[in-house]
Amino acid sequence: MRLHLEKRPQPSRRWTDLSPLLAVVITMLAGGALFALLGKNPVEAISTIFWEPLFGEFAFYYRPQLLIKGAPLILIAIGLSLGFRAGVWNIGAEGQYIVGALSGAGVALAFYPLDAWVVFPLMIMAGALGGWAWGMIPALLKLRFGTNEILVSLMLVYVAEQLLAAMALGPMKNPDGMGFPGSRNLQEYPAAHNADLIAASGLHWGVVAATVAVILAYILLGRHVLGYQIRLSGEAPRAARFAGVNPGRLILFCLGASGALAGLAGMFEISGPAGQVSIDFNVGYGFTAIIVAFLGRLHPVGIALAGLLMALTYIGGEIAQGNLGLPAAAIQMFQGMLLFFLLAVDVLTNYRLRLAPRPETA
Amino acid sequence: MDLGSINPILLLASIMAASTPILLAAIGELVVERAGVLNLGVEGMMITGAICGFAVAVGTGSPATGFVAGAAGGAVLSLLFALLTQVALANHVASGLALTLFGLGLSALLGQGYVGVKPPPTARLDIPVLGDIPVLGPILFSHDLMVYVALALVAVVWAMLKYSRAGLILRAVGENHDAAHALGYKVVRVRVLAIAFGGACAGLGGAYLSLVRVPQWTEGMTAGAGWIALALVVFASWKAGRVLLGAWLFGGVSVLQLNLQAAGVAIPVEYLSMSPYLITIVVLVIMSADKSRAPASLGRIFHASQ
Amino acid sequence: MTLKSILTGAVMALGLGTTAAVAQDDKTKVGFIYVGPIGDGGWTYEHDQGRLAVEEHFGDRVETVYQESVPEGADATRAITQMALNGADLIFTTSFGFMEPTINVAKKFPNVKFEHATGFKTAPNVSTYSARFYEGRAIQGHIAGKMTESNIVGYIASYPIPEVIRGINSAFIHARKANPDVQFKIIWAYTWFDPAKEADAATALIEQGADVILQHTDSTAPQAAAEKAGNVISFGQASDMAEYKPSPRVSSIIDNWKPYYIARTQAVIDGTWESQQTWDGIGPGMVGIGEITDAVPADVKEEALALKASIAAGEYHPFTGPLKKQDGSDWLAEGETADDGTLLGMNFYVEGLDAEIPQ
């Protein structure tokens, strides 16, 4: 006798909903053990991470921060999920995020100090266009030459990072910045500032865009023929071809859309919360968003929830650092564990655990 | 500008040493990918190997033991990835990224007591006769043992993939896991072994960084070397020999630009730093005309339910 | 209604603005925001040593908190706000990139004192502080000029910013004074911290004949490269790097934030804290010169110590005329010393340096 995985005919509805909760519970137990090992009170540490940002005494400040931290993750992850569903693997969202930010900031800096309403819409367009163009490189190479988009998009992340450094130290450097690297602060340029729509709410245009993206993706996947084609290509590529799906168009759409959304996220970040082009502007949202997309089961609503959960662990983790003196590394490990368990329990959605006699083969 | 101050012999010798960590990590990842598994956690395994190797070398005073521990550390961490992808059938890309996150955190925790500690020195091999050969001697025969271990590993992997039965099975599993399964090969077992080998190699590469190249322990010291190793495997189009070439090229561009700067050549550093990645993309494009390509089952999840 | 009034209003409504002042009256809370991990062995490590010194000096009278590896931008704003909300009375933000976040948060918490390292923007409750590392560079330059036999000094620079350029100029001026034939070879690593790259840079310089390595990056990798090469000397950077004594590391520049952190905490406790711009050097002890080892000949060591003493006493300024810029134009006349404004924005090399600042 041995444990055996048996494929379910249909993904289990119950486990789709239950497994993330189970994972969070297991993570709390394992994380608690880790914190105890470091000599901290595990209950206090866990409750600081999950409770404090939402209901603690300073929740009025942290709740808006959840939106600020979660919005770019959700925006990028929604774009990525389209491709992941269709079997198009864009893992270079970090690069598209950077290029979108540079394009948006470039427009703003070009118009500085012109105070006109048109600047911000132009920045939005430039951001989306920049990310889109960066995403089209792996798409076109894949179409024309059949190169692997995973690797090309990943390579382009490094190129974008170098480009960012070059811009922060060169063309986009603040002329009034005493020679230090980094551009002007867009937060001090009203026409370009992506400010909170309601003061101190955390609700900036990026949050709006993320919400719209979730709704649009939901409609697209559920109602639109393109969404149907995306799902079909991912689940049954051969059937998709017979059904008349043009794989080339799909690749262009998926990489273009995810690139544009990542670019938008970058633009909203650089014109709002981050404020300026600096060498270390990117903090890994593009990679974290991949994880968010999977945590959300590639479903728009799931992604929105997963993005907020990730944001919660970031912010709660920071509070735990400040209040309890937990090292940043422990928080990083804790997040890694959460991902491990979420990925691991996902198996229960598609498979059933069975005790079975040892089969002849395998 | 004084290009004459660059000594080509010393330059080539430096490139050989500089490319060793990424070479080790890349040759391991190559085996993993040939088995049809895409493990993006190389960075996490490298840095875990770096601290395990460092801690043990400091503790025992023996760099050799340290290298063994580094390899073991990387392998143990990679088994987490194996558990996720091979047993729990999780997505490779997400699992690999999670592994990197986890490894960076773990290494920082393990390394808390080792900042500012100097590891025991790794002896440079002075190969008597060979080392005295003009030109070739300094380039090829004046390194520490690990440089040769890395080269030997490349040769072994190359020979194994090309000639041995084990290599054949590995490739079969990577190309079409369903067919390999139907033939009676144990797909999961082969992949777990490949993943562990990849982890050990990455750990070894990390330990080389912390014990020889740098040598010290600091958080985040791999500084992206694991990602470069991933690029290298692609650059090499999954061929062991070309990994060596690629590692020298990557290491070479970096060392060469530093040498050009020292010689007073004004070069745009950021743009030059992009070049290895752009070259890799170009190689990918050229390669697509070539017959060699990614293993067909790369990154796909296998479940023996059929 | 601005963000500030809403926030402070909310704080007041919850009665928290007062808790910080009343409940913790006897204990001063000091916060530190770090850009790197405290285990980096360099920049952040030394700031954390300063934090520990504050704890040791004041004992139960203060409580310190820190947050490490804080990215610049929105995350820094949140980290600083969080500390302020949790009742910190004094917050040190220890990286140039935290300048805008510090200023922004300071507006919302007028009762909390902020100290920002290496920046140039101040506010009624924001001070800036930085160290005159170029004073230490002058001493290194002198030793380098005296000790080099190949007359080639290698310099590993990080980013082309005034701070780094100032260091190169100061070291070069004093190396030339000690040895008119000396040449500098400069490598821009474009990183503050990447041990493997720093090792490669040091090796490249050594292979091109440098027998003295100066570094403006934070890891000990160049020390190890120098040790491996033999007959090369180097200097510790940011921390003492004493594990490479007596050679190759013959001396070091140590970021010593302890006296400043203790003094500023004391000022908050006494209620005498005022916004100011501090730029201290060897004299007040913010720049420490690590032990000059016996690998340096006794007479050179004596000259170096004399130089250190005259800088510390304020008798000598490392940028004293006559000095010309690299393009041959006059900069400082005989006896004239550089003003702080020029030094803070320094974007040119002095005459004699055979290199270009990357643009």
How would you describe the overall organization of this protein?
The complex is a heterotrimer of chains A (362), B (306) and C (359). Chain A is mainly α. Chain A has one domain: ABC transporter involved in vitamin B12 uptake, BtuC (Orthogonal Bundle), CATH 1.10.3470. Chain A has helices at 13-37, 42-50, 52-55, 59-86, 93-111, 119-145, 149-169, 205-223, 225-235, 237-242, 247-271, 285-295, 300-324, 328-345, 347-350, and strands at 2-7, 351-356. The two termini of chain A are 14 Å apart. The model of chain A has no long low-confidence stretch (mean pLDDT 87). With 306 residues, chain B is mainly α. In chain B, α2 runs parallel beside α8 (145-163) and α4 (63-87) packs antiparallel against α5 (92-110). Chain B starts with 7 loop residues before the first helix and ends in a 17-residue tail after the last helix. Chain C has 359 residues and is α/β, with parallel strands linked by helices. Chain C folds into 2 domains: 3-131, Response regulator (Rossmann fold, 3-Layer(aba) Sandwich), CATH 3.40.50.2300; 133-254 and 288-344, Rossmann fold. Chain C is built from 12 helices and 14 strands. In chain C, α3 packs across α10, α6 runs parallel beside α7 (162-178) and α8 runs parallel beside α9. The longest helix of chain C is centred in the middle third of the chain and has 17 residues, at 162-178. Chain C is globular. Chains in contact: A-B, A-C, B-C. At the A-B interface, β1, α7, α12 and α14 of A face α4, α5, α12 and α14 of B.
